[in-house]
């Protein structure tokens, strides 16, 4: 959504945020801006619009309203206000929210049901600040075919299509005659139109972009307020599930990873995710993502690989196939890749496969062939994109052309640019390897 909103839009957004804060406070979440007996002022406030570290709009976020010290507890959210399987069982019944039903699907059913209730839902103030559609989340698994075409050359394209297909299959199983959706409709837990695929897609987009896996609870959790923290790959802030004294439920607690100054945005890491994963689940990419990667797939060619039958059998004995995938990272070149191409390029003169030391050059001819194989694989991956990295850079520098791309086109451009940069860097790294 655009950060250039009309004042009325901003007023409505702030009203929803105030209602969320009031609801949380009424259920035991301490958000007071002033100190009280035995409690320091709450250190955070909701910002209706923020920008990420690449200065791209990133929606709502949490800002430090005063100085925050490393290790400070930023908030405590009780389990009773969270969306969990435990709460789903209580609302839907154990015969619908069965242990056999996946956790994402279980929580999606609860979300759809509560959304259909509108203002009557216990979670209404929370639901009112969630994205209103799956499109608003922007995750690539809901992109149109035309939008996905902007990812040509990247594995992100097929990844999004496969994810979307799995979502369709999951919904078909839920909506099958006698399935959970049928049962919910029969018991008047939710009207049929509230359980459509579009509503399921919305619920799953919300869950994949906002839910937390809490190890201590062994549960997937949608935690109101906690899910307002935006992503930074450099953040080490942690969530913990703690059990207060004399309570049968958990609290979701977040501890600051460092000092924050007043009005500084407080971040959380969503995990060590590549830009493909970030775009697939969250709808954004990061230019300076230390966890970005391109998976390069290399294989033995039955028609061109020397000693192919011998090598294929050798790999099978080790539990491997003829084709292997290697992650190329922003700052690292996998040694295993050059080791595999040394193996793949071995001729009779390099000796036995079982005794060769692939961590070092086997011969001048083999090393030249192995390095050429890696470079050729990288160049083939680069050739799959419709534009070169230099052409992308010129497009990015053209403000008019960039504006025509739209938000998703811009995200796709940046993702592909970063992947091409990784591939080009890998070529330079191979050429610079010491002999």
UniProtKB/TrEMBL annotation:
Pfam families: Rubis-subs-bind (PF09273), SET (PF00856)
GO molecular function: protein-lysine N-methyltransferase activity
Key word S-adenosyl-L-methionine present: yes
Keyword annotations: Methyltransferase, S-adenosyl-L-methionine, Transferase
UniProt superkingdom: Eukaryota
Protein name: SET domain-containing protein
GO terms (BP aspect): methylation
UniProt-listed Gene3D superfamilies: Rubisco LSMT, substrate-binding domain, set domain protein methyltransferase, domain 1
Domain SET: 42-271
Stored InterPro entries: Rubisco_LSMT_subst-bd, Rubisco_LSMT_subst-bd_sf, SET_dom, SET_dom_sf, SETD3_SETD6_MTase
Record flagged with keyword Cytoplasm: no
């Amino acid at each position: 959504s655009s950060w250039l909103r009309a004042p009325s839009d901003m007023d409505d957004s702030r009203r929803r945020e105030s209602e969320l804060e009031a609801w949380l406070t009424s259920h035991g979440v301490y958000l007071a801006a002033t100190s009280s007996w035995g409690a320091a002022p709450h250190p955070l406030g909701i910002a209706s619009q923020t920008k990420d570290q690449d200065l791209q709009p990133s929606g709502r976020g949490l800002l430090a309203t005063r100085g925050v010290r490393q290790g400070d507890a930023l908030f405590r959210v009780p389990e009773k206000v969270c969306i969990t399987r435990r709460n789903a069982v209580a609302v839907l019944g154990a015969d619908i929210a069965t242990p056999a039903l996946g956790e994402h699907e279980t929580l999606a059913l609860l979300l759809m049901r509560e959304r259909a209730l509108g203002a009557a839902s216990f979670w209404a103030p929370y639901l009112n600040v969630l994205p209103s559609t799956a499109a608003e989340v922007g995750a690539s698994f809901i992109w149109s075919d035309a939008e996905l075409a902007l990812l040509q050359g990247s594995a992100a394209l097929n990844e999004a299509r496969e994810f979307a297909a799995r979502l369709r299959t999951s919904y078909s199983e839920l909506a099958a005659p006698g399935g959970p959706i049928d049962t919910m409709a029969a018991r008047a837990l939710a009207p049929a139109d509230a359980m459509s695929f579009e509503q399921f897609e919305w619920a799953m987009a919300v869950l994949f972009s906002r839910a937390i896996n809490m190890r201590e609870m062994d549960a997937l959790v949608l935690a109101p307020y906690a899910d307002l923290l935006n992503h930074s790959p450099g953040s080490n802030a942690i969530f913990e599930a703690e059990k207060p004294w004399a309570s049968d439920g958990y609290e979701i607690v977040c501890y600051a990873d460092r000092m924050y100054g007043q009005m500084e945005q407080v971040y959380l890491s969503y995990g060590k995710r590549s830009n493909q994963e970030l775009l697939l689940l969250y709808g954004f990419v990061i230019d300076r993502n230390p966890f970005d990667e391109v998976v390069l797939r290399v294989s033995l060619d039955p028609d061109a690989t020397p000693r192919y039958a011998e090598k294929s059998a050798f790999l099978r004995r080790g539990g491997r196939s003829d084709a292997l995938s290697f992650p190329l990272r922003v700052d690292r070149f996998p040694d295993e890749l050059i080791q595999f191409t040394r193996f793949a390029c071995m001729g009779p003169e390099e000796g036995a496969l079982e005794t060769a030391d692939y961590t070092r050059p086997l011969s001048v001819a083999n090393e030249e062939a192995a390095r050429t194989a890696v470079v050729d694989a990288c160049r083939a991956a680069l050739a799959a994109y419709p534009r070169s990295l230099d052409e992308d850079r010129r497009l990015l520098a053209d403000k008019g052309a960039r504006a025509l791309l739209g938000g998703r086109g811009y995200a796709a451009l940046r993702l592909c640019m970063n992947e091409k940069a990784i591939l080009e860097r890998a070529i330079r790294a191979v050429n610079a390897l010491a002999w």
